[in-house]
Amino acid sequence: MILPPVPPAFYLVLSGILFTIGVIGALTRRNAIVVFMCIELMLNSVNLSFITFSRFLQSIEGVLFAFFIIAVAAAEAAVGLAIFVMLYRSKETINVDEVNLLKW
Amino acid sequence: MLVEYFTIGIFIAIAIAFACFAVLASHFLGQRKPSAIKQAPYECGMTTVGSSFRRVPIKYYIIAMLFLIFDIEVVFLYPWAVVFKEYRVFAFVSMAVFLGILILAYIYIWKKGALEWE
Amino acid sequence: METIGTILQWLIFLGMAFTSILASVLLITRKNPIHSALFLILNFLCVAVIYLLLYSQFIAIIQVLVYAGAIVMLIVFVIMLLDLEEELRSRLKLFYSKVIGSVLAVLFLFGLIYGLVATSPTGKTGSYTAEKMSANVKAVGEALFNQYLFPFEVVSILLVVAIIGAVILSKRKLS
After folding, report:
1. Residue A54 CB contacts under 8 Å (≥ 6 apart), including other chains
2. Is residue B86 a part of any domain in this protein?
3. Same domain, B61 and B102
4. Which residues neighbour C60 within 8 Å (Cβ) at sequence distance 6 or greater?
5. Looking at CA atoms only, how far is residue B15 from chain A in angstroms?
6. What is the pLDDT of residue A2?
7. Which letter, b or e, does each residue of C114-149 get, where b requires 16 or more Cβ atoms within 10 Å of its Cβ?
8. Taking a contact as any Cβ pair under 8 Å apart, which residues of chain B between 80 and 99 contact chain A?
9. Residues B16 and B71 occupy one common structural domain
10. Coil, helix or strand for B46?
11. Are B118 and B63 in a shared domain?
12. For chain A, which residues make up each domain, given as ranges?
């Protein structure tokens, strides 16, 4: 019996599972920073599927996409966390269900 | 190629095993006689004041944020340095544009006083 | 030798996959946000090892440097800055909407897996074979300075905007 190398579907299923866990976390948690971490988790799982396709279709595009996604995630982290700090200074909370000024 | 990482894997496995061994050995071999004074938090021999969890000033956040952004910049320098010998002037000019735009941000934060530690 | 390599690949993949799934489940269930941040680091490190399995050393290094290093450090700083205690009980009764949201997310996952099983991923195969990808940073650099020159320059504008936005937000005095 010969064992084949890990097929691409396994990596993609792992990426899908991580993405789903990130979605569940972003939907169920109330702390804005934990929601933010779940969004980072989702970005990371998308990166994983980009790299998987890049490897199995033998192209470099996926790697560059992942690279740019990491740069965008860093910019997003800098601004997003600054927004959380401002939110906490003005409202004394960062629970997402208590920040409902624009909700109708 | 994975074989090259295999040695790193062995190294990491030995490091983790050693750390676990040290902690577990001291856990099972050492003897402990806990008392109220020994369990108390230690702060230079003084009695502790307040909670151990206190808010940090925002200037730490600004420094950490600037570190993150310039970390990204350095990450972009890495593939540039690898291909620099083949592209020479072209690579130099494109990286000069990239760094020139980022220097605008650097001048901005300098003038704004975000780098000062008042 | 080949079979040993394949067995090792399977072992590393399965170990890292289970560890990363476990870490992300713990991330969304811990009450203390510092613990969540530590499990996020564990998850990123496991995914970095999987990138190594996919012959993508450059992204693995960047994953550790930027994600597990800088971004999570910033998150931990903000948690310390805000003095967040554990999540308090909500006055709102959100239990049913949480259950419905989770069920929908799991259905989404089943849809993804079904799509994956029903149709094998197709696409034109490029020229970057495993041998060429072993000089990963060089390949990335060449693509970066040929096809992706303009996005590369635009990233610097994005970073400038991020710096200016974050500095304005965090230096502002509250009236």
Report:
1. A60, A61, A62, A63, A66, C54, C56, C128
2. yes
3. yes
4. C48, C49, C51, C52
5. 27
6. 74
7. eebeeeeeeeeeeebeeeebeebebbbbbbbbeebe
8. none
9. no
10. strand
11. yes
12. 9-91
Q: Are A31 and C84 in contact (CB under 8 A)?
A: yes
Nearest to C164 among B55, B108, B113 (CB): B108
Q: Do B71 and C9 touch (CB under 8 A)?
A: no
Q: How large is the average pLDDT for residues A38-60?
A: 91
- Tell me how crowded residue B98 is: count the other CB atoms within 10 A of its CB: 22
- What's B56's DSSP letter? P
Provide the whole-model pTM: 0.87
Choose between C19 and C120: higher pLDDT: C19
Structure tokens at B35: 């008392």
Task: Provide the CATH topology of domain A9-91.
Answer: Helix Hairpins (1.10.287)
Task: Tell me which residue range forms the domain holding B104.
Answer: 55-118
- Backbone dihedral region of B44: left (phi > 0), alpha (psi from -120 to 50 degrees) or beta? left
Interface contact B72, partner A, CB < 8 A: yes
What is the identity of the amino acid at C89?
R
B23 & B77 share domain: no
Closest approach of C24 to chain A, Cα-based (Å): 7
Reduced to 3 states (helix: H, G, I; strand: E, B; else coil), residue C125 is coil
Query: Tell me: the pLDDT tens digits for B5-53?
Result: 778 878 988 999 999 999 999 988 888 888 877 777 776 766 666 666 6
Angle between helices A32-56 and C2-29 (to 10 degrees): 160
Facing residue for A58 by CB, picked from C3, C13, C125: C125
Quick one: tokens of C131? 């041998």
Nearest CB among A8, A12, A18 relative to C20 is that of A18
pLDDT band at C118 (very low <50, low <70, confident <90, very high): confident
Same domain? For B112 and B75 the reply is yes
My answer on whether B63 and B102 are in the same domain is yes
User: What pLDDT does residue B53 have?
Assistant: 61
Same domain, B7 and B59: no
Count the domains in chain B: 2
C174 touches B: beta carbon within 8 Å: no
